[in-house]
Each structure stands twice: as C-alpha cells, then as structure tokens.
UniProtKB/TrEMBL annotation:
It comes from Paenibacillus sp. AN1007. The keyword Hydrolase applies. GO terms for molecular function: bis(5'-nucleosyl)-tetraphosphatase (asymmetrical) activity. Keywords: Hydrolase. Residues 4-140 form the Nudix hydrolase domain. InterPro entries: NUDIX_hydrolase-like_dom_sf, NUDIX_hydrolase_CS, NUDIX_hydrolase_dom, Nudix_hydrolase_domain. This is NUDIX domain-containing protein. GO terms for biological process: AMP biosynthetic process; ATP biosynthetic process.
Length: 145
C-alpha cells in the first residue's frame, strides 16, 4: 500500500531594509523553535501559489518568488493515516509589501534579522533539516555562512 503523500511549500523570505541592508525573515513556531514560513498545499493550487499564500497568511507579507531553493523529503507518522511521505518545497522569496503580522493561531512570532543573526538563530534554535535551506537561500543572496 502506498503511503499518503503531503506537499508543503514555503520560503526564505528577504527584503532590503530602509538602511539598504539585507534582512531575512524568521518565524518562531508554536513549539518555540526558529523556522521558515510554510504550509500545506490546498486543492487547485500550484506549489508556488502555496508558498506565497502561506507566507502571506503566517507573516502578513506579500512575496514574489525569485527561484527554487530546495525540496526536503521525509516520512512522519500520522495518527490516522500511518506513515505520510512529506515533501516541502522551499523558494527564495522577496517580500514586496505588507505589514509583518504573525498568525497567532499558528506561530508565536515573526521578525526580520540580518543574515548573520538569522544564521546564528537557525544554528542555535532551528530545525536541523532547515540548515541547508537557510544556507542555500543566503548563498543565493550573496551571503556565505
């Protein structure tokens, strides 16, 4: 029997701050861990649309996809369905407009950080499988960590 499949999408969201400096968006999830905006694909959506919708819903920012970063694949145990094969598609996303507003039902907070702060927070309190995503996103923005 085939495992149930689940697709999520999200992004490494960045902007240029008022001081002209690059800023990276990070979320604190409901478990108090540092992570990236992401969520499950809904019927009729493309993966890109999912990423942008989830970023808007979770953080209040309207984004534009620049390029794909990475796909993380893993299997987790669901109480009802058993093993679920999950794919998370991450994109490099430029924040174009909006007001930073955490979706309090889903997350504890969201903020902008310098690339160095963002990498440090990911290292200290992020999910291990996001290390490569954050690093690759920063590399695409010309930041080597």
């Amino acid at each position: 029997m085939m495992n149930k499949k689940e697709i999520s999408a999200g992004g490494v969201v960045y902007r240029t701050g008022e001081d002209g400096q690059l800023q990276i968006q990070l979320i604190m999830d409901r478990y108090g861990k540092i992570t990236l905006a992401k969520g499950k694909m809904e019927d009729g959506e493309t993966i890109e649309q999912t990423a942008l919708r989830e970023i808007l819903e979770e953080t209040g920012m309207v984004g534009r996809i620049i390029e794909p970063i990475n796909i993380i694949a893993y299997t987790y145990q669901h109480a009802e369905f058993g093993p679920v094969d999950k794919e998370v598609h991450y994109y490099l996303v430029e924040a174009e407009s909006g007001d930073l507003q955490p979706q309090i039902e889903e997350i504890k907070g969201v903020d902008w950080y310098t690339p160095e702060e963002a990498w440090s927070k990911q290292q200290q309190n992020g999910y291990d499988n996001n290390d490569d995503v954050v690093r690759a996103g920063l590399n695409k923005l010309g930041v080597n960590v």
